[in-house]
Amino acid sequence: MAASAAPEHVERIVIENGSIATVDADDTEYASGHVVVAGNRIESVGAGRAPEGLANVVRRIDGTGHLVTPGLINTHHHFYQWITRGLATDHNLFDWLVALYPTWARIDEPMVRAAAQGSLAMMARGGVTTAMDHHYVYPRGSGDLSGAIIGAARDMGVRFTLARGSMDRSVKDGGLPPDFAVETLEGALAGTEATIDAHHDASFDAMTQVAAAPCSPFSISTELLRQGAELARRKGVRMHTHGSETVEEEKFCHELFGMGPTDYFESTGWLGEDVWMAHCVHMNDSDIAAFARTGTGVAHCPSSNARLAAGIARVPDMLAAGVPVGLGVDGTASNESGELHTELRNALLINRLGAHREKALNARQALRLGTYGGAQVLGRAGQIGSLEPGKLADLVLWKLDTLAHASIADPVTALVFGAAAPVTLSLVNGRPVVEDNHLITADEDAIARATREEARRLARIAAGA
Prior knowledge:
It is a single chain. The chain has helices at residues 93-104, 109-124, 145-156, 185-199, 222-235, 247-257, 261-267, 285-294, 302-307, 315-321, 341-351, 363-377, 411-417, 444-464, and strands at 12-21, 29-38, 41-47, 57-62, 66-70, 72-73, 128-135, 159-166, 208-214, 239-243, 275-279, 297-300, 325-327, 395-399, 423-428, 431-435, 438-439. It has 465 residues and is an alpha/beta fold.
C-alpha cells in the first residue's frame, strides 16, 4: 500500500519480516511484509522490507514468526462487573440480574475504578487497543463513576468509548433494579449530557468518546429512550443499548408495548447508522432487514450469550444482509475471562452450531468482526480497524512461533482457531501498551490486589445491607 506523507521529523517505528493481515476492503495479506508507523499514524504497509532511507527510525522490530493485525476493538462491556465474577453461574439472564442487582446497587467510585482497571488490563494484554464500557448503574451518592472509568482508560493508554448508561425503571415500576440504584428521567438525561460535555472528543485521533446508552427495555422508560435519542443526536454522539437478548425480553416487549423489541426501538428513534445494540440474539428476518435498512450495528457477545443460555445470534445472516457487526466481551460477571481475543474463536465455533453449520464463519471473517467490524459499530471505520496508510497506529504483533501454534501453517487460522497467542507488542496511537505479553502502562499485580480488595469490600457491604 502506498505510503502516506509524514513530516521528516516524526519518529518512526518499523516492523519487518512478519506476516500481515491488513483487514482492508480487499483482505490484503502479506506472507512477509512491513508496517511503518510515523507518529500516531500508519505510514506504509506492504510486502518485503520497509523502504530504505527512512528518517528518525527509533525502533526496528523483527516480526519473524509473528502476525501483525489491527488492534482488537471491543464493542460491549460492563467494567464494574469485574468485582462480581464467578457469581450466579447457573442462571439465565433475568434470574442472574435479580441475583446480582442488590450487590451492584452498592458500588462506589473506588470499586468502579478498580474494576475498570481490571477489565481494561485483561483486554489490553490480550490485544485490545480500543475498549468500550456500557456503565448504567449510578447509585445515589456513589461518586463520579464516569470520571473514574474514563480516568482508568486514560491511564492504561487505550482508546476508549464510554457508553454513559442509565436506568429509570426500578422494582416499584415493574423493572429489575432496586429503587435506589436507578436515576430519575431528568437525572439520567442531565448526567448523560454532562458526561458528553466534559469528556467527548470528536477529533480524528480521539482517545475518549462518549455515547448515550439507556440500559435495556426492561429497565428504562419509553421517555428515556425517546429523549435519550434526541439528546444524542443534538450532541452528535452515538447511541447504544441492549436489544433482543433473550426470549423473555421479547415476551416483555410484546406484553408491555404490543410489539417486538426491534419495532419498539424503531418507534422510539433507536434505529440508525448512529446506533449499535448488544447481543441481538433473537432476531427474525424482518428485524435483520430493519437493521440492514437503517445501518444499525450489533455487538456480538458469544461467550456471554452461551454463559447465560441466551442463544445463538444469527451473525451470518446479519453479515449477508449488510448489518455492521463487531465483537464484545460483555460484563465479566457473564464472561469471566474478560478477554476479547477468545471471542474471535468463540464467535466462529458457536455460530457453526447454528443453521449454517461449517459455512457460518471462517477465520478471516472472525478476525474482521474483532477489528474492522468493531470500528464500524463504534463509528470509527475511517480511523481504526484496518492497517492502511493514514489510519491511526493501533496494531498488535502476535507471536505464533511457539509450541501452541507451531504446526499451523496459516497465521490467521493459527490466531483464530488456535490457543490464545502471546502479544509481543501492542501499539495504541503509535505508543506501546503491551511488550512481551505484559502491560507496560500499568502494574498488573497491583491491579489484581486492588480488585480483590474491592470485591471483598463490596461483598461485605452487600451482605450487611
